[in-house]
Amino acid sequence: MDRIRIRGGNKLNGVIPISGAKNAALPLMIASLLTSDTLTLENVPHLADVEQLLRILGNHGVDVAVNGRRESQTESYSRTIHFTCRTVVDTTAPYDLVSKMRASFWVIGPLLARVGQARVSLPGGCAIGTRPVDLFLDGLQALGANMEIDGGYVNATAPTGGLVGGHYTFPKVSVGATHVMMMAATLADGTTVIENAAREPEIADLAKCLNAMGAKISGAGTSTITIEGVTSLHGARHRVLPDRIETGTYAMAVAMAGGDVTLEGTEAALLDNALDAIRMAGATVSETESGLRVVRNGNGIQPVDVVTEPFPGFPTDLQAQFMALMTRSSGVSHITETIFENRFMHVQELARLGARISLSGQMARIEGVSGLKGAPVMATDLRASVSLVIAGLAAEGDTIVNRVYHLDRGFERLEEKLTRCGAEVERVSD
Ligand code: UD1
Question: InterPro entries, per this entry (predicted)?
Answer without folding.
Answer: Enolpyruvate_Tfrase_dom, Enolpyruvate_Tfrase_sf, MurA_subfamily, RNA3'P_cycl/enolpyr_Trfase_a/b, UDP_GlcNAc_COvinyl_MurA
